[in-house]
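Running this now, will post back.
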Amino acid sequence: MSQKLAKPDSEPGFSLAIRVYYEDTDSGGMVYYANYLKFMERTRTEWLRSLGFEQDALREHEGLLFAVRRAEIDYHKPALFNDLLRVTAVLSGSGGASLDFEHQVLREADGTLCCRGRVKVACLNVKTLRPQRIPDNLLAEFADVL
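Update: finished.
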């Protein structure tokens, strides 16, 4: 279940609802810290999909892939087993071969901020694994966001 967000500050973005499963938690029933990165990854992937870009097709037809270059996370309150979370993604910047995202992980029931993250994603050439310019057709989809 996903939907586009209308943020109060008018920044376009995307959000995805994610249920916390037992496998996402540690022995204390809290989301294991590294799993927040997985939730953010799913949200970015679903955002691309909602824009009509499948990552396997980008790899096959455009010869590119995206890889996380840097991630910074601030943990605020733990998400717990069976919580329904709302994970948001806002594109905050781009370079010739990179995209910068701001993420929030919120507890759906009460809006509690569980985690905030900043992720830089690099566009790489599939064959060389070297940076590659982001194709114009993909950048055009983000033009209204930046």
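Helices lie at 35-50, 55-62, 136-142. More later if anyone needs it.
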